TrEMBL record:
Protein name (Swiss-Prot/TrEMBL): Calcium-transporting ATPase
SMART domains per UniProt: Cation_ATPase_N
Membrane topology: Multi-pass membrane protein
Task of the protein: Catalyzes the hydrolysis of ATP coupled with the transport of calcium.
UniProt keyword annotations, A-Z: ATP-binding, Calcium, Calcium transport, Ion transport, Magnesium, Membrane, Metal-binding, Nucleotide-binding, Translocase, Transmembrane, Transmembrane helix, Transport
Organism of this sequence: Edaphochlamys debaryana
Localization: Endomembrane system; Membrane
Listed NCBIfam families: ATPase-IIB_Ca (TIGR01517), ATPase_P-type (TIGR01494)
Compositionally biased intervals (Low complexity): 1182-1195
């Protein structure tokens, strides 16, 4: 039974859930049966049910029409109810209680809690301590520590919820399905059993099923099986398709058999834990900073504890166990631990997490979906962007605007009447059948493109010619023999159809210059053929060049007839597209316009101002690419270089590396070229961002520092390999990702400046307070409040600051720049100096200049407060007055200078010698012969002295309270002001710019200020050991706090005056050193040295062979299929001169080292060594193949076609190197 399981002991366990699903299923084939056939890949079971056609019938679906949107058994809803939805069980939400436990595991927090509890116990158990609420401070510390734990857990909980929501979006993709006879896009979660899916190269498969039809369908199942070799799928030999796999090549349709938990991927998902806990590079860097600061904090805490303990032991003559919890060792330990807690900047990793989470959410609104957390921060340091052209720089709304049709050129799309019926038929079948795209007509009259945009443009062309492409496909679907998909290597795609006569016809389309070189003839208007001679080929290439120079993408349409049967033809002849696509007949070349996005030129200029080099990497013709690059502002300078992929990949490393800084356009490039470019740029120290949309772009996306996949045109393979998905395929969205990346980095730096200045102040003040004497400036609770401000609230405030345009005016921070710059150190020190000045002024200066804040001295204490302090020890007023006089004026312990005067009550007894220094002799007087124990006055004095000593520390600390209250309030308000100053960490003077948009920051500053008012002016002040302030004191505190802002202005103005460089992009560079964007070939010495004798593949150039970028051996024009490669170049420093002359021939050397004849000249020729370059603009001279090549500056619009004298190559790869290098 499919819904039962036999146990080892022989008992049978019934799967109740499956039984219920089967009983509720209205279809002939039950879920358990279908799942079993799918899970076991049961070929016999599949055949028993009639294969795909039979299963479709039992599932009430149609292999051509698909499911319906109605309410019957053929509806999507009915299938979802019967077989389940394509969703997986949600990951359980984070548990707040577990978050609390995690937050409480911090070692310092644990120690703090333990010491606080011990303090509470001792304070409540010892009567003397209980009388003075000795337990209150421990209770307050315990409560504050618990608040810190709850806030930390709450932030972690909120962060996890937010990341969970963002991660859920990663798995939402659009799927092409057939519904109601139409191809539509639906989210993967809406796919159900019985759906007919269309699969294309690069698609991610999201459900299990079987192949209905296959056009060279090859599936990569490595994610499930671990096998690296892709597997060919077809309906006969291997129809089983699994979710979680990807389409490597080809296309086809599949019938969905299992979704959600019943699919192979669904079963695997339950066993695989989600990744994402690893730290980002910025978090790792900040963890290192936090560790160093923490070590310093621990050192200060140990010094403070030892200093206070030694002082206490000296005062108490070796210690007093009864005083251990009364401003004694226990309080010292609590204070030291608090210093450690404050000094540990645990808010740093929290700030990174907060700003990344906040930025990810905001970036979604800017059409940047972040898949990899670290990409946020890395994008801010990008120094180079390698961008696709189509859809990224252009609108990707391609339209055929002109063309050449059967020998006649048209400046606009011809009407059907202008074309012959035979030509219309060729266009009809090529554009409709050699095409996997489709159009979706919206109710508002607009048309959405689905699939390759070039193919969509051809479908629109058919509509303009009055042809219904859907009807064409339905009519000839059964005639389709094989579909050869487009590949970047072939630059073309074909379809093989069977004609009514039984013969075969191949319809081909592709890059015009590539297809033309595979053609043998051209179609004339009358239907006859014209041989494509070399001269005629040059004319056609010139036609293509002219169209391309106007920014048009040129697509050539061609065909070839094959006999239905040919005994001389190999059996596998039609398996090799390179064999099939030869001796073609061209009948049309269409020019497709794809306008540049309106916002792109400004976005490119913004990148260039930001120190980011933008390069266009495209598969288009070099003339089209240059035209678009000029429109975008990429190709602007005279020394900028545009190069073709075939030239790029055959250049030796020694020649390529020096010109890379000027390379701006790489046309006719392959994915391998893009990967090579990215790798080389990274080796030269650049931080590279790369865009990609195709399956073959995945390696370059992975190799780059930040991979940017296109959300609309990108394949699922490309999206899986990317770090960020650009949802609108727009280059301006990439610029926004750079802005957000810099914002992340800047927000962390703001927080660092803010927090480290507090760390510095806390540690210095604690150390001075302990070593110099007096009292610590901030007590335990106050330090914990400061810690809460800077670690939690400030992290939230500064980490959620929005980006501002000025961030793009500075150069990128690059790959190796330290997180803390020289200017940041200046800001940290100046902020700390300001706060320390006022802190010590309040602590030591205020008591000396104002009686209101004067600290109780010992003399004053004994003179003025003695009767009050000892009244509980004696019943007699006379005794109290007597002992108080002795303690205050007789030198026991105060009044040593007064003992020889009548102020001392003992003086008259010892006239004329004065009061003796011996206490017993002085006090007992005439009873000197008695023992000390028999002298009542001496006993009373000792009792009084002990009481006074015990109470002095408490009274002295109480007298400090007015000054410490002002200090504490001014310090917190200075921190609030410093938070505003920290919003700009350059030399900017406007700290309030954009403040109206920083709602979270403003709210948190108001919360901190409000809480501070509550602490100072309500009964809470008792817990914090401060007293309420009056209006005048508040005014002084506010003035001191706000004064941090003009002080920061003064320091920045001084720095500007002292620094010779004052502009925003320069002063920062002046303080932090050279920038990564300044790295050129000359700066990358290791690479340059390696390049002198090696290619990029690392192979040595020597002997008869010459290695190219791809590692191929080029042996000259007669030694192989490839062209000759130069090992020496002619360079001219003369700007603007066309390099072309026969009167003074230059030489180009082949790999064998022999000159190949006159090919051009330079105005002031200079022979260099292998791979050498001069000082001027690069001008290429040289011959490749049999043609000549002339090079002009990029800005010269009169550049002749580089293909003018070219002969047909032996292969498409060999052709294409015969181009100009700009």
């Amino acid at each position: 039974m499919a819904n039962s399981v036999a146990a080892p002991d022989g008992t049978v366990h019934i799967k109740v859930t499956e039984l219920e699903a089967d009983s509720a299923c209205p279809y002939p084939i039950k879920p358990s049966t279908l799942n079993l056939i799918n899970a076991e890949k049961d070929a016999d079971g599949l055949a028993k049910h009639g294969g795909a056609q039979g299963l479709a019938k039992e599932l009430e679906t149609d292999l051509h029409q698909g499911l319906s949107d109605g309410t019957g058994l053929d509806s999507v809803e009915a299938h979802k109810n019967a077989y389940g939805a394509n969703t997986f069980p949600d990951k359980p939400p984070p548990n707040f209680f577990m978050m609390l436990l995690e937050a409480a595991k911090d070692p310092m927090i644990i120690i703090l809690l333990v010491v606080a509890i011990v303090t509470i116990i001792l304070g409540a158990a010892v009567p003397e301590q209980r009388a003075h609420q000795g337990w209150s401070e421990g209770l307050a510390v315990l409560g504050t520590a618990l608040i810190v734990i709850f806030i930390g857990a709450g932030q972690d909980y909120s962060k996890e919820l937010q990341f969970q929501k963002l991660n859920a979006l990663k798995d939402v993709i659009e799927i092409k399905v057939t519904r109601n006879g139409k191809q539509v896009l639906v989210p993967n979660s809406e796919v159900v059993v019985g759906d007919v899916l269309f699969l294309d190269t690069g698609d991610k498969i999201i459900a299990d099923g079987i192949v209905i039809d296959s056009q060279g369908l090859v599936i990569d199942e490595a994610s499930l099986t671990g096998e690296s070799d892709p597997i060919k799928k077809d309906a006969a030999s291997d129809p089983w398709i699994r979710s979680g796999t990807t389409v490597n090549e080809g296309s086809g349709h599949m019938l969905v058999l299992a979704v959600g938990p019943n699919s192979e991927w669904g079963k695997t998902m339950a066993l695989v834990a989600e990744a994402g806990d690893e730290q980002t590079p910025l978090q790792e860097q900040l963890t290192d900073v936090a560790a160093k600061v923490s070590k310093a904090g621990v050192l200060v805490a140990v010094v403070v504890f030892l200093a206070l303990l030694i002082k206490w032991l000296i005062i108490h003559k070796g210690g007093d166990a009864s005083k251990i919890n009364d401003n004694g060792p226990l309080q010292f330990l609590l204070y030291a631990i608090t210093i450690t807690v404050v000094s540990i900047p645990e808010g740093l990793p929290l700030a990174v997490t907060l700003t990344l989470a906040y930025s990810m959410k905001k970036m979604m609104k800017d059409n940047n979906f972040v898949r990899v957390l670290s990409a946020c921060e890395t994008m801010g340091g990008a120094t180079a962007i390698c961008s696709d052209k189509t859809g990224t720089l252009t609108e990707n709304r391609m339209t055929v605007v002109e063309g050449w049709f059967a020998g006649q050129s048209y400046s606009q799309v011809p009407t059907p009447a202008e074309l012959t019926p035979g030509l219309l038929e060729l266009l009809q079948w090529n554009c409709a059948m050699n095409n996997k795209a489709f159009l979706v007509d919206q109710e508002n009259g607009t048309v959405d493109f689905v699939g390759n945009r070039t193919e969509c443009a051809l479908l629109i062309l058919l509509r303009k010619l009055g042809i219904d492409y859907k009807a064409c496909r339905e009519q000839r679907e059964s005639d389709q023999i094989k579909l050869y998909g487009f590949s970047s290597a072939r630059k073309m795609a074909s379809v093989l159809l069977r004609e009514k006569s039984g013969d075969l016809k191949l319809y081909n389309k592709g890059a015009a210059e590539w297809v033309l070189r595979r053609c043998k003839a051209l179609l004339r208007p009358d239907g006859s053929l014209e041989e494509l001679t070399p001269q005629r080929l040059e004319e056609m290439i010139a036609l293509v060049t002219g169209m391309a120079s106007r920014g048009l993408r040129c697509i050539c349409l061609s065909y070839r007839d094959y006999a239905g049967t040919d005994p001389s033809r190999p059996a596998d002849f039609f398996e090799d597209a390179n064999e099939v696509d030869n001796d073609l007949i061209a009948y049309a070349i269409v020019g497709i316009k794809d306008p540049v996005r309106q916002e792109v030129p400004d976005a490119v200029r913004t990148c260039q101002k930001a120190g980011i080099v933008v390069r266009m990497v495209t598969g288009d013709n070099i003339h089209t690419a240059k035209h678009i690059a000029r429109e975008c502002g990429i190709l602007t300078t005279d020394d900028a270089i545009a190069m073709e992929g075939p030239v790029f990949r055959t250049m030796p490393a020694a020649e390529l590396i020096p010109i890379l800084p000027r390379l701006r356009v790489l046309a006719r490039s392959s994915p391998e070229d893009k990967l090579t470019l990215v790798s080389l740029l990274k080796k030269q120290g650049e931080v590279v961002a790369v865009t990609g949309d195709g399956t073959n772009d995945a390696p370059a996306l992975k190799e780059s520092d930040v991979g940017l996949a296109m959300g609309i045109a990108g394949t699922e393979v490309a999206k899986e390999a990317a770090d960020i998905i650009i949802l609108d395929d727009n280059f301006s969205s990439i610029v926004k990702s750079v802005l957000w990346g810099r914002c992340v980095y800047m927000n962390i730096r703001k927080f660092l400046v803010f927090q480290l200045s507090i760390n510095l102040v806390a540690m210095i003040s604690a150390a001075v307070g302990a070593l110099y004497g007096g009292v610590p400036p901030l007590n335990v609770l106050q330090l914990l409040w400061v810690n809460m401000i800077m670690d939690t609230l400030a992290a939230l405030a500064l980490a959620t600051e929005n980006p501002y345009p000025e961030l793009l005016e500075d150069t990128p921070h690059g790959r190796s720049e330290a997180i803390i710059t020289g200017l940041m150190y200046v800001h940290i020190l100046t902020a700390a100096v300001y706060k320390l000045f006022w802190l010590f002024a309040c602590l030591y200066g205020l008591p000396r200049i104002s009686k209101q804040y004067a600290v109780l001295g010992e003399t004053e204490y004994y003179v003025t407060m003695c009767p009050e302090m000892i009244k509980d020890d004696f019943n007699s007023t006379a005794t109290i007055n007597s002992v108080c006089n002795i303690m205050a004026y007789c030198g026991f312990p105060q009044g040593e200078w007064d003992r020889q005067t009548t102020a001392c009550s003992l003086y008259p007894q010892w006239v004329p010698i004065g009061v003796p220094g011996d206490e017993a002799k002085a006090v007992c007087g005439s009873a000197a012969n008695q023992t000390i124990t028999d002298c009542q006055l001496l006993n009373d004095l000792n009792t009084a002295q002990k009481t006074m000593e015990d109470k002095y520390d408490r009274e002295m600390l109480e007298s400090y309270k007015p000054a410490l209250s002002v200090l504490f309030n001014a310090f917190i308000l200075a921190q609030v002001a410093n938070a505003f100053v920290s919003r700009r960490i350059g030399l900017e003077l406007n700290f309030f710019k954009g403040l109206s948009e920083s709602h979270i920051f403003n709210a948190i500053m108001l919360i901190i200020t409000g809480l501070q008012v509550l602490i100072m002016q309500t009964p809470i002040s008792y817990i914090f050991k401060v007293e309420p302030l009056n209006g005048e004191e508040w005014g002084v505190c506010i003035a001191i706090g706000v004064g941090a802002i003009p002080f920061a202005w003064a320091c920045r103005i001084l720095i500007r005056y002292l620094l010779p460089l004052t502009r925003s992009a320069d002063w920062l560079a002046g303080l932090r050193g050279s920038r990564a964007s300044g790295i050129t070939a000359s700066g990358a010495s290791p690479m340059k040295q390696a390049a002198q004798s090696k290619t990029l593949s690392g192979r040595t150039v020597s002997g008869q062979q010459h290695k190219t970028l791809s590692g191929r051996t080029m042996s000259g024009p007669h030694g192989g299929a490839g062209p000759a490669v130069r090992t020496s170049m002619e360079i001219t420093p003369v700007h603007g001169m066309t390099v072309s002359s026969a009167s003074n021939p230059a030489k180009v050397w082949t790999a064998s080292g022999q000159p190949q004849g006159p090919v051009g000249e330079c105005a002031t020729p200079k022979r260099l060594g292998s791979g050498g370059f001069g000082d001027g603009s690069l001008k290429r001279v040289g011959s490749i193949g049999s043609g000549s090549s002339r090079v002009v500056p990029v800005s010269d619009a009169r550049a002749p076609s580089p293909l003018g004298n070219a002969s047909r190559p032996e292969s498409p790869m060999a052709w294409g190197t015969n181009t100009q290098l700009r």
